[in-house]
Amino acid sequence: MSDEEETALAIPATNKISTRKVEEIDGEPDIGKFDGNNPFLSQSLPKWPQMIVVGHPVTVDQAEEIIRRTDMFFRGYGGNDHDFDARLRQLCRMSPERSYDGNDANFQRHPWPVNYEYDQRWRGAWGFLDTAYVHTDWISSCYIGGPHGWVHPNGGIGANTNVGKWPSCEEIFHDWMLISAAWPFLDLGVVLMNDENVNADTSTPILGFRIKDGQIEIVDPKTRDLTAELPYAETKSFEEHLAERGFRDQEHEHGAPEEWFSRWEALATQLFDEEYRNL
Q1: CB-count exposure of residue 7 (10 Å: 0-12, 13-18, 19+)
Q2: Less packed terminus of the chain by CB within 10 Å, N or C?
Q3: 18 near 220, Cβ under 8 Å?
Q4: 207 with 192: CB under 8 angstroms?
Q5: Which residues contact 240 (CB under 8 A, 6 or more apart)?
Q6: Region of residue 25 (phi > 0: left; psi between -120 and 50: alpha; otherwise: beta)
Q7: How confident is the model at residue 36 (pLDDT cuts 50, 70, 90)?
Q8: What angle separates helix 259-277 from helix 60-70, to the nearest 10 degrees?
Q9: Under a CB-based contact definition with an 8 Å cutoff, are residues 139 and 256 in contact?
């Protein structure tokens, strides 16, 4: 980096670029007042930047709530255990899995526009957090390394993964703004790197966020090491995960406790049972 670039990114004497309370307007975080010209947020990221998350643990009940509202399964993704996916979709009163074959009887009964509109209403009532890049993926994950996420089902906080593809610093900042507004009890740090995690030996941190009490602070990782300040909940390595579950064992795709599903079914029945039966 040139001397000019170093000067442009220099942290003010307060050691903070911005610490602001996340205000809510009509239930949505108001980030309109934030200065989008902040030099740290205007930095470029690679296609799949490494994101490290560290922080103090939350309770199991809090973890369940976060995963219920952020997991990729509720965005319509799933794994290779299709029977499991179909069962949980039914329990949660999600729309049936779509068929794109015009000759398929299921497609004739559940055309795409009807499902799409239902899914939009369903996610709104479910309280699903519409983040662009920061998700959890514990319920039914086809990721080769198994289920994962920045918050763990046992309440631990910790992630060392790639996000993408082609995110901007502003978009990831916006995601964490939404998350900090939704769960002000979170006490964590986020560090973005200038390369993928497979190149961790040579990559360097370029941006940090400190989240606590519903506030988010932009941190210069060159002057403040969030990974040294906060605890990190370890996850199983790729090799450990495969050794335990086996590469071809579809159960290795499931990371959320089964007992959560009965509570989710009760909630979904209350919200959508009648409309679901009329699909």
Answers
A1: exposed
A2: N
A3: no
A4: yes
A5: none
A6: beta
A7: low
A8: 40
A9: yes
Which residues, other chains included, contact 134 with Cβ-Cβ below 8 Å and sequence gap of 6+? 51, 70, 150, 163, 172, 175, 176, 179
What residues make up the domain containing 71? 3-80+132-258
Q: State the average pLDDT over residues 160-171.
A: 94
Instruction: Provide the number of structural domains found in the chain.
Output: 1
Q: Which pLDDT belongs to residue 59? A: 98
Q: How many residues does the chain have?
A: 279
pTM, to two decimals: 0.83
**b/e 30-49 (16+ beta carbons within 10 angstroms → b):** ebeebeeebebbebebbebb
Q: Which two tokens stand for residue 48?
A: 């799949």
CA separation for the pair 85, 69 (Å, rounded): 17
- HEC string of 192-241 equals EECCCHHHCCCCCEEEEEEEECCEEEEECCCCCCHHHHCCCCCCCCHHHH
How high is the pLDDT of residue 108? 58
Q: What are the φ and ψ backbone dihedral angles of 174, each rounded to 5 degrees?
A: -60, -45
Locate tokens 């009329």: which residue? 278
Is residue 114 included in any domain, yes or no?
no
113 assigned to some structural domain: no
Whether residue 103 is contained in a domain is answered as no
Q: Shortest CA distance to 130 belongs to which of 71, 86, 81, 189?
A: 71
- Report if residue 95 sits inside a domain: no
Whether 148 and 89 have beta carbons less than 8 Å apart is answered as no
Structure-token match 């526009």, residue found: 113
What is the enclosing helix (H) or strand (E) of 70? Answer: helix 60-70
- Which amino acid, residue 59? T
Position 242 confidence tier, pLDDT thresholds 50, 70, 90 = low
Q: What is the pLDDT at residue 19? A: 38
Give the per-residue pLDDT at 144. Answer: 77
